[in-house]
Amino acid sequence: MGETKAELMTAVYKVHVHCKQCAHTIVTQFTQFPGVREVKLDGGKVTVKGIGFDAEKLRKKVEKGCRRRVELVPPPKDIVTEVKSKKESVQSGSERFYLSTRVISLAGQFLLSNPIDQ
After folding, report:
1. pLDDT tens, residue by residue, 22-34
2. DSSP labels for the chain?
3. What is the distance between the alpha carbons of residues 106 and 82, in angstroms, rounded to a whole number?
4. 13, 18, 47, 105: most buried, per Cβ within 10 A?
5. Contacting residues for 117 by C-beta, under 8 A, at least 6 apart
6. Is 30:58 a contact under the CB 8 Å cutoff?
7. Is pLDDT at 39 greater than 90 in this prediction?
């Protein structure tokens, strides 16, 4: 028999939630779709985890079922927008050390990488 590999998928949707009944209807619509294993509603953001479901078909089904606009939120992309390098010299006694650090900006987030020897 042939084996099929199923990959765990995660999709994020944006839905306007007005009240508890709206939230219940939205979650019910998402969970009734084949392949959906977990639905998490946080405000207007719905995170869906499952195996082998079509995110666009799910969006259309929920939009029709709960009569609300449902938007599929694209996954965030880590885009490097800026790389800054800085060299520093440190003197300890009669020895002088040079340290190099990099600051990387990823779409609004700043990361300080480990010192680099150059």
Report:
1. 889 999 999 999 9
2. -------EEEEEEEE---SHHHHHHHHHHHHTSTTEEEEEEETTEEEEEEES--HHHHHHHHHHHHTS-EEEEPPP---EEEEEEEEEEEEETTEEEEEEEEEEEETTEEEEPPPB--
3. 7
4. 13
5. 100
6. yes
7. yes
Predicted confidence (pLDDT) at residue 13 exceeds the cutoff of 90? yes
Model confidence pLDDT, tens digit, residues 47-102: 999 888 889 999 999 999 988 899 998 876 654 445 555 556 666 666 666 555 55
Phi and psi angles of residue 56, each rounded to the nearest 5 degrees, phi first = -70, -40
Using CA atoms, how far residue 18 sits from 12, 67, 75, 77, 117, in Å, is: 19, 13, 25, 30, 55
Return the structure tokens found at 67: 């009569």
